[in-house]
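Support request from a user on the community tier.

User writes: "When I paste my C-alpha cells into the form, the page sometimes reloads and wipes my input. The last time it worked, I copied everything first. Here is what I submitted, just in case something in the input itself triggers the reload:"
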C-alpha cells in the first residue's frame, strides 16, 4: 500500500503526464530548430568536417540569431531547466509529506528512482543532435543519389551547363580567364557531386551541405559511385577527370599549359606562335632522348673547362692579393713618410704667414689648402690599411673557393665518366624543349599516368619556350632550370591539387626560394624571361659582393652537374648556397 502511495495516485499521474509532455516539447522544439539551423545558416566550410564530431559542431554553433525562423527558439532550454526543477521539487515535496508515514529505505529508493527521470531528460536533450544528424544523413544520401542520376544523363548535364566532351571543354578553356579554374583527379566522384550541388570548397555554407554531405562523400561507399563520363567541366570552372586517353591528353594538356603561362605573365612575355608539341610513345621518346646525349656531354665538358679556368684564375687572384699583403709594410712606410715630410714642411706655414703679415686672405686660403692636403695624406694611409685588410679577406676566401673548385672538379670529372658509361635516358625526363619551337613529351603507353603528370611537364617546357630567344639565351643552366621549376610550381599550385604538383629540380628551386627573399620575384622574372645574365649579375651584386656572385655561380654549376648518385653532395651544395644567400 505504501509503495502504491509512492508511485501511483492522482498527483503522480499528473506529474508523469506533465513530464512526458514537456519532454516531447523539448525534443520537438530543439530538433525543429537544429534542423532549420543545419539547413539554412551558412557558418561552415568543408574544412570544418575534418575537425571534430559532427553533431557536436551542430549543437555548439547553434544560436537563435535568425529569430523568427525558429520555433520558440530558447524555449527548449527553458523547458529543460523547468523539468529538472519540477522533478526535484516534486521529489522534495513527496519526501516531506511521507517521511513519517513510510520507512526511510523505501522512501530513499523512491528518491533515487526519480533521478531516472532526470537522466532521461538529459539524454533527450543530449541525443537530439544525434537524431537530427541521422535524419540529415538520410537526406544527404538521397541528394547524393539524385545528383549521380542527373550527372549521368546527357540532357541534364547540358541543361546545367556541364560539359563532358573534350572538344567543347577545350573550346571553353581557350576563352577562359581561369580565375576560379581547378583540376581534380583524386576523389573524382566526391568533387563531381560537390560541384554539381554548388558546394564551394572555401566558401561558407550550411551544416547540411558543408559537413553532412561532405562526410557522406568521404565514406568508402562513395568511391564505388560510377560516373558515365570520364571528364566533366562544371560552370564554376571545376574540371573533374578520372581516366582519359592520349587523344584527350593531347588536346587538353597543351591548351591548359599555354593558357596558364600566358595569363600568369601576360604583361611581360612576348607573343609567340603555338609551339609544335609532339607526344611520343616511350620507345620513340628514348630514341629521341639519345640525341640529347651529345648536348649533355658538351655541357659537362664545358663545366670541366670552366672549373679548370676558375682554378687558374684563382691562382692569379691569390698571387695578386698576396703581393698586396707583402707590399703593405713598404706602402705603409711610404705613406707615413709622405705625411711626415708634408707636416714638416708645411705644418708651421700658417703661423709664419700670420707673423709675416702676408695678409689674412692669403693665410686663410693657404691654411685651407694645407688642411685638405693633410686629409688626403691621412686618407692615403687609411687606404693602405684598408687595402691590406681587404687583400687578407680576399686571399682567405679565394683559397677557400679554389679548394672547393678542385673538389668540384674531381666530382664533375667522375660524373662525366659515369655519364659516358651510363648516359641519361628518358627514364629521368618527361619532356624536352627543342629550340626554337618544338616540345617533345613522353607519353606513358605502358601504364596510365594522370593528366597532371603531362601538365606539370608541359608547364615547365612552355616556360622554356616563352623565355627562349637566340640572342641572350645564356642564363646558367642551374638558374634557368631552377627559376623555371619555381615558376611552374607556383602556377600549378593555383590550379591543381597540392599532391599533384611535382618539383623536379628540388635543390635548384630551394635556392630560388631563398634568393627571392632578397631579390624580389618581380625583379627576377623579367631577367629570366629575357635570359639577361648580365642584368642578373648586376642585380645580384647590388645585394651581395662580386666575390659572392662568383662563388654562387661556381657552386650552382657544381650542384646542377653533380649526379644524383652523389645526392649527399648535391644537398651539401644547396645548403652552402642557401647559407650564402641568407646572409642578407
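"...and here is what came back when it finally went through:"
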Amino acid at each position: 500500500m505504501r509503495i502504491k502511495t509512492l508511485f501511483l495516485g492522482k498527483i503522480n499521474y499528473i506529474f508523469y503526464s506533465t513530464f512526458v509532455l514537456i519532454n516531447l516539447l523539448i525534443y520537438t522544439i530543439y530538433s525543429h530548430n537544429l534542423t532549420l539551423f543545419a539547413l539554412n545558416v551558412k557558418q561552415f566550410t568543408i574544412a570544418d568536417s575534418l575537425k571534430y564530431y559532427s553533431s557536436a559542431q551542430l549543437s555548439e554553433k547553434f544560436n537563435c540569431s535568425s529569430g523568427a525562423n525558429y520555433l520558440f527558439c530558447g524555449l527548449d532550454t527553458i523547458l529543460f531547466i523547468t523539468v529538472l526543477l519540477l522533478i526535484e521539487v516534486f521529489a522534495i515535496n513527496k519526501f516531506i509529506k511521507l517521511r513519517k508515514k513510510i520507512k526511510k529505505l523505501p522512501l530513499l529508493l523512491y528518491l533515487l528512482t526519480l533521478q531516472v527521470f532526470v537522466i532521461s531528460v538529459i539524454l533527450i536533450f543530449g541525443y537530439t543532435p544525434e537524431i537530427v544528424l541521422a535524419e540529415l544523413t538520410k537526406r544527404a544520401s538521397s541528394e547524393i543519389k539524385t545528383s549521380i542520376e542527373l550527372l549521368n544523363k546527357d540532357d541534364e548535364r547540358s541543361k546545367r551547363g556541364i560539359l563532358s566532351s573534350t572538344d567543347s571543354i577545350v573550346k571553353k578553356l581557350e576563352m577562359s580567364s581561369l580565375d576560379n579554374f581547378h583540376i581534380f583527379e583524386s576523389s573524382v566522384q566526391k568533387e563531381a557531386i560537390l560541384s554539381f550541388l554548388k558546394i564551394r570548397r572555401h566558401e561558407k555554407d550550411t551544416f547540411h551541405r558543408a559537413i553532412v554531405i561532405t562526410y557522406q562523400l568521404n565514406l568508402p561507399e562513395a568511391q564505388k559511385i560510377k560516373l558515365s563520363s570520364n571528364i566533366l567541366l562544371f560552370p564554376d570552372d571545376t574540371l573533374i577527370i578520372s581516366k582519359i586517353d592520349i587523344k584527350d591528353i593531347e588536346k587538353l594538356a597543351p591548351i591548359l599549359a599555354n593558357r596558364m603561362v600566358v595569363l600568369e605573365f601576360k604583361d611581360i612575355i612576348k607573343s609567340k606562335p603555338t609551339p609544335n608539341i609532339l607526344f611520343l610513345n616511350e620507345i620513340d621518346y628514348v630514341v629521341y632522348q639519345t640525341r640529347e646525349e651529345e648536348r649533355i656531354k658538351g655541357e659537362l665538358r664545358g663545366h670541366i673547362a670552366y672549373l679548370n679556368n676558375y682554378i687558374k684564375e684563382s691562382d692569379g687572384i691569390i698571387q695578386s692579393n698576396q703581393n698586396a699583403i707583402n707590399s703593405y709594410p713598404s706602402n705603409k712606410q711610404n705613406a707615413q713618410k709622405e705625411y711626415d715630410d708634408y707636416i714638416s714642411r708645411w705644418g708651421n706655414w700658417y703661423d709664419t704667414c700670420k707673423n709675416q703679415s702676408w695678409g689674412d686672405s692669403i693665410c686663410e686660403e693657404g691654411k685651407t689648402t694645407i688642411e685638405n692636403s693633410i686629409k688626403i695624406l691621412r686618407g692615403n694611409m687609411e687606404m693602405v690599411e684598408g687595402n691590406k685588410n681587404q687583400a687578407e679577406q680576399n686571399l682567405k676566401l679565394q683559397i677557400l673557393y679554389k679548394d672547393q673548385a678542385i673538389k668540384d672538379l674531381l666530382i664533375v670529372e667522375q660524373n662525366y665518366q659515369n655519364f659516358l658509361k651510363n648516359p641519361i635516358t628518358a627514364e629521368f625526363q618527361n619532356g624536352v624543349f627543342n629550340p626554337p619551337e618544338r616540345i617533345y613529351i613522353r607519353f606513358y603507353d605502358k601504364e596510365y599516368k594522370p593528366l597532371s603528370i603531362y601538365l606539370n611537364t608541359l608547364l615547365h617546357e612552355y616556360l622554356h619556350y616563352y623565355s627562349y630567344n637566340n640572342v641572350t639565351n645564356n642564363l646558367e643552366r642551374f638558374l634557368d632550370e631552377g627559376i623555371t621549376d619555381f615558376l611552374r610550381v607556383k602556377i600549378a599550385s593555383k590550379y591543381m591539387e597540392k599532391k599533384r604538383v611535382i618539383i623536379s629540380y628540388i635543390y635548384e628551386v630551394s635556392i630560388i626560394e631563398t634568393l627571392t627573399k632578397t631579390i624580389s620575384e618581380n625583379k627576377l622574372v623579367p631577367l629570366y624571361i629575357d635570359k639577361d645574365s648580365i642584368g642578373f649579375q648586376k642585380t645580384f651584386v647590388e645585394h651581395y659582393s662580386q666575390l659572392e656572385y662568383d662563388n654562387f655561380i661556381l657552386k650552382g654549376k657544381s650542384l646542377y652537374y653533380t649526379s644524383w648518385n652523389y645526392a649527399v653532395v648535391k644537398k651539401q651544395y644547396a645548403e652552402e648556397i642557401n647559407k650564402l644567400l641568407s646572409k642578407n
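Agent notes: The reload is a front-end session timeout and is unrelated to the input. The chain is about 70% helix and 5% strand. The CA atoms of residues 19 and 83 lie 7 Å apart. Escalated to web team.
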